[in-house]
Amino acid sequence: GSEMCIRDSISTESGIPDFRSPGSVWQLQPPVSYHDFINKSEARQQYWQTRRHLSSQVKEARPNTAHRALADLERRGMLLGIITQNFDGLHQDAGNSAERVIELHGTSRAAACTLCGARSSITELQERIDTGAIDPRCPACGGFLKAATILFGQRVPETELARAKELAAACDLFLVVGSSLKVMPAAMLPQLALNRNVPLIIINLQPTSLDALADVTIAEKAGVVLPRLVELL
Q1: Are residues 176 and 225 in the same domain?
Q2: pLDDT by residue (tens digit) across 209-218?
C-alpha cells in the first residue's frame, strides 16, 4: 500500500488564525521575536498578553473535516506521518497517533524552559501569569518559561527536523495541505520527495513556489478536498 507523508497547516479552518490571514491577531499585534523575548521584560509581558487572547481561540478549536480525513488515512494504514507547522494538537484530537505527528513549531499544550528545555504544565503557568506573576522562571535552571512553541527567530528543533527529513525520504506520495511553502526549513521538505521522483500533490488556496513541479495542484479548502480524496483511495 501507498504510504503518504503529509505536510500541512490546516487549522485556520478550525478558527485558529495564521500569521498571514487578513485581520489576524498577528497583524494587529506583531508576534514577539525570540530575541526580544529573551532580552526584554516588556516583550515577555506582551507575549503572555497575546497568548491569553489566542489561547481562548485555541481552546475552542475542534478538529475539522481535514483533520478527521488524515486520522482516517492512518487508521487505514496509508499514512507514514504528518509534518505540521501547527502547534494546537488538533491532529491528535482527531485520532492521529502522537508518534505520527511531527510538530516542527512545537506545541502550545505544554510550557518549556528557553534554557534547559524542561517541559511543564502550560495551564499552571498561564494561571500564575494571570494572577500577577511576572517573568516566571524555570525551577530547575532559572531560564525564562514560555509555551513549548517556537517564536520568530528561534530554530526549529533539530530532532523534529531530522524526523521530518526521514519521512520525506521514505514516503511514496507527498501531500502538501494548506501551506504557502514560504517558511524555511519546512518549505524544502517536499523538494526532498521530488528529488526521488515521488508524486507531489498540493492543496492550497493560493499558488505556491512548487506548483510547477507538482503532479496535481488543487486550489480549494483542505476541509472540502481531503475527505473526498480519502474516499477515492
Answers
A1: yes
A2: 999 999 999 9
> What single-letter DSSP state applies at residue 116?
T
Q: Are strands 79-84 and 101-103 parallel, antiparallel or unpaired?
A: parallel
Task: Provide the 8-state DSSP code for 98.
Answer: G
Half-sphere exposure for 101 (CA within 13 Å, toward CB)? 25
- CA 161 to chain CA mean position, Å: 13
Q: Which domain holds residue 43?
A: 17-60+106-149
Same-domain check for residues 217 and 122: no
Sheet with 4-8, side-by-side order of all strands? 101-103, 79-84, 4-8, 173-177, 200-203, 216-218
Same domain, 95 and 133: no
Tens-place pLDDT, residues 38-52 = 999 999 999 998 888
Amino acid identity of residue 189, one-letter, is L
- Tell me the C-alpha distance between 84 and 10, whole Å: 9
Instruction: Report the predicted TM-score, pTM, of the whole model to 2 decimal places.
Output: 0.86
Give 14-23's long-range contacts (Cβ < 8 A, gap of 24+). 14/61, 14/62, 14/63, 14/64, 14/67, 14/88, 14/90, 15/57, 15/60, 15/61, 16/57, 16/58, 16/61, 16/86, 16/88, 17/54, 17/57, 20/180
**pLDDT at site 73:** 94
Q: Is 53 among the residues known to form the active site?
A: no
The amino acid occupying position 39 is N
**142, 106, 145: which is closest to 127 by C-alpha?**
145
- Binned at pLDDT 50, 70 and 90, residue 17 comes out as low
* Overall number of domains in the chain: 2
